[in-house]
Design a protein that fits this description.
40% of the residues lie in helices and 12% in strands. It has 17 helices and 15 strands. The strands form five sheets. It has a five-stranded mixed sheet with strand order 10-11-12-15-13. A four-stranded mixed sheet has the order 4-7-9-8, sandwiched between helices. A two-stranded antiparallel sheet has the order 1-2.
C-alpha cells in the first residue's frame, strides 16, 4: 500500500477525487528522500501529474543527479500543454518544492464511439444479446472476417488477435473483495469486468506498440526508412473476448498513442527524440475492435538503440529489487512513514477490520528507457493484469505493485510529466478507475508548492502540509521554514530508482477513513526533518546514496 520513487515525482491515477488524500498517505507513497537545501529538484507533471521545465544537473559519486533551479524557458504552445513550466524557479528558491504544470491528453474523439457502443449489440459475445452458446460461434465468424479483411497482413504474420476475456474466477475475486469491504462504493460487476477487460486490452496494445518500436530500433541501419523488406513496419491488432465497451477503450488507447506521436514529432517532450514514432489508427469498419500500428515514414533519423545502451548502465532486476526493498525497510517500515506497510514483502496491514486483506508487494522491473516509453507502459499494464489475476489476499494475493525503471533515474521531468500522463489517462481509458490507482516515486521528487494542482497521487502541497502541522502542533510548526516543510514532504517520495506504485482502489478508500492526515504528516515531517529529533536531509541523502551503491554491477 505504499510506493517509492527516486528521480521523479509521485503520481496516483485516482479517478475518484475522494481518494486523493488517501492515496497520498496509504500506499508506499509517503516516503521520499530529497536532496539537501543546496539543491533543487525540478520535474514535470502530467495530465493528472505535472511537468516542469528542463533542469541543470550534476552528479554525485553515487550517481544521484542533483538538480539546480531550472532556467527560464517559454512553455510550448502546442499540445501537450505545460503550464507554469518554470515553477521550480521560484523567488523563494526552495530546493524541495516546485510548481507542477500538467499535460493534458484529449480523449474526446472517442465520444462518437461511445454512442455507437451503447446502441449496438456486443459483437464479441461478452455481454450483449449474442451470448451463451452463440458467442463463441459469432466470435469465430468475426475473426474469420477480420482475416479476410486483412488477408495480406495475415499472410505476412502481421495480424494478431488480442484476447481480452476475463476468466470468471478472476471476476469473482474482485467481486469478493468489494462485497467484504463495500469500499468500492457498490461498483457493479459489469464495471469491474469492463475495467479488467480494459486492462488486458491496454497490456496487449502497448506491447504491440513496444514491439514495433523495438523492431524499428534494431533495424535502423537496414534502410533509410523505418521499414523491413521495403515496407513500413506494420501490425494489425484485433481485440476479442471483451464487452461492448471494448470499442470505446480501443479508441481511447489510440487517442493516447496519437498524443505521444504528436508530442515526439513536435519536440514538446524532451529526451524522446530517439524514440521511433508509431502511428495508430482505429478501423471502425472491422468486425472486431481493431487498430493498425505503423512506423511513421521519415522517423528513421531519430531512431537509435538508446534503450540498449541504457541497459548496459542500468542495474540488474535483482540488484534493483534489493535496493528498493532496502528503501521500503528503511523508510516505510523502520520509520513507520507508511502506517499500512509493516514488512518488505507484504502490505495492507492494519486494514483487516475494514475487510481489506493483507497481500504481497509485487516487485517488478522494466529495462525501458526514454527511447522506449511504450515498453515501459506495456510492462506496467502487464503487471496490473497479473495483480488482478492473483486477487487481493491469500498467499498469492497482491496488495500493491512496485515497478522500478532505472532507465529513467536521470529523467525526472520526463518521468513525472509525460510518462505519468500516459499512465493516468490510460487507467481512465481502460475504465480501470474502480480497480487501481497509479503513484509515482523518484530520486528527485519535489513537493508541490501549491501554485498549481499536481494531480492525484502526489504529495500534498506545502501550504496544505503547513496547515496540518499548524493544526496538529503549532509550536513545532514555528520551528519549520517552508523549505523544511517541503523537504519533509519530498523525502517521503524519494527512492533509489524511478518507481511506479500501483495500488488497489478499495485499499485507498479504506485507508482514507482509517488515518488522520494532519497527525500522520506532522509525525512524518518531525521524524524526517524535525530540528531536534529529525534525521535531517544530509543523513537522508547519505542513506539514499548508500542504497544506490548496493551491489553495483561491475
Amino acid at each position: 500500500v505504499c510506493a517509492l520513487s527516486i528521480h521523479c515525482s509521485c503520481n496516483v491515477n485516482m479517478m475518484l477525487p475522494a481518494l486523493h488524500s488517501s492515496i497520498a498517505a496509504v500506499s508506499l507513497l509517503p516516503l521520499a528522500q530529497s536532496l539537501p537545501a543546496s539543491f533543487v529538484s525540478s520535474s514535470r507533471l502530467h495530465l493528472f501529474c505535472s511537468n516542469n521545465g528542463s533542469t541543470a544537473s550534476a552528479s554525485t559519486s553515487s550517481g544521484i543527479r542533483l538538480c539546480s533551479t531550472p532556467p527560464q524557458s517559454e512553455p510550448p504552445q502546442s499540445s501537450p500543454t505545460a503550464e507554469n513550466r518554470n515553477g521550480g524557479d521560484r523567488a523563494s528558491g526552495c530546493p524541495f518544492s516546485m510548481s507542477f504544470p500538467r499535460y493534458r491528453i484529449d480523449l474526446s474523439s472517442a465520444s462518437s464511439v461511445r454512442k455507437r457502443s451503447k446502441s449496438s449489440n456486443n459483437k464479441t459475445g461478452g455481454d450483449g444479446v449474442i451470448g451463451g452458446l452463440f458467442s463463441g460461434i459469432r466470435q469465430g465468424m468475426d475473426k474469420s472476417a477480420a482475416e479476410r479483411r486483412y488477408a495480406r497482413d495475415a499472410r505476412n504474420g502481421r495480424l494478431f488477435f488480442a484476447d481480452c476475456s476475463v476468466p470468471p474466477e478472476y471476476v469473482a475475486r474482485a467481486r469478493g473483495v468489494e462485497n467484504e469491504t463495500g469500499a468500492e462504493g457498490g461498483v457493479s460487476e459489469d464495471k469491474l469486468l469492463s475495467g479488467m477487460e480494459g486492462m488486458r486490452a491496454a497490456a496487449h496494445f502497448w506491447r504491440a506498440v513496444a514491439n514495433l518500436v523495438t523492431n524499428a530500433q534494431e533495424h535502423r541501419d537496414d534502410s533509410d526508412s523505418p521499414s523491413l523488406g521495403g515496407e513500413l513496419q506494420r501490425t494489425v491488432l484485433a481485440f476479442t473476448g471483451g464487452g461492448s465497451a471494448l470499442q470505446l477503450q480501443c479508441q481511447r488507447l489510440a487517442d493516447i498513442a496519437a498524443w505521444l506521436e504528436d508530442s515526439i514529432l513536435s519536440g514538446s517532450i524532451e529526451d524522446t527524440a530517439r524514440c521511433p514514432v508509431i502511428h495508430v489508427e482505429v478501423d471502425e469498419e472491422s468486425p472486431l475492435p481493431t487498430v493498425t500500428l505503423q512506423t511513421r515514414q521519415g522517423s528513421s533519423n531519430t531512431i537509435e538503440k538508446a534503450y540498449v545502451d541504457n541497459k548496459n548502465d542500468a542495474p540488474s532486476a535483482e540488484i534493483t529489487e534489493e535496493r528498493i526493498k532496502h528503501w521500503v525497510r528503511r523508510i516505510l517500515v523502520d520509520l513507520s512513514i507508511c502506517p499500512f506497510t509493516k514488512a518488505t514483502n507484504r502490505s495492507g496491514q492494519g486494514l483487516g477490520d475494514l475487510g481489506i486483506p493483507t497481500g504481497r508487494i509485487a516487485y517488478h522491473y522494466s529495462d525501458a528507457g526514454p527511447s522506449a516509453i511504450p515498453r515501459l507502459l506495456a510492462d506496467v499494464w502487464e503487471a496490473m493484469v497479473d495483480m488482478m489475476n492473483c486477487g487481493a489476499g491469500g498467499k498469492e494475493g497482491v496488495s500493491s505493485i512496485l515497478l522500478a525503471a532505472p532507465g529513467f533515474d536521470t529523467k525526472f521531468p520526463l518521468w513525472a510529466g509525460p510518462v505519468f500522463s500516459l499512465l493516468e489517462s490510460g487507467v481512465g481509458a481502460a475504465g480501470a478507475e474502480p480497480l487501481v490507482g497509479v503513484v509515482c516515486f523518484h530520486p528527485e521528487y519535489a513537493t508541490p508548492d501549491g501554485s498549481s494542482w499536481p494531480g492525484f497521487g502526489h504529495m500534498h502541497s506545502v501550504p496544505r502540509l503547513r496547515k496540518w502541522v499548524d493544526e496538529e502542533d503549532p509550536n513545532f510548526s514555528k520551528t519549520l521554514s517552508d523549505d523544511d516543510v517541503a523537504a519533509g514532504g519530498a523525502w517521503q517520495r524519494r527512492t533509489p530508482h524511478s518507481v511506479i506504485n500501483v495500488l488497489r482502489a478499495d485499499q485507498l478508500e479504506a485507508a482514507e477513513g482509517k488515518r488522520t492526515s494532519p497527525q500522520m504528516y506532522t509525525r512524518n515531517i518531525r521524524v524526517l526533518v524535525g530540528k531536534e529529533e529529525g534525521i535531517g536531509s544530509e543523513k537522508l541523502l547519505e542513506d539514499l546514496s548508500s542504497e544506490r551503491k548496493q551491489r553495483l554491477p561491475t
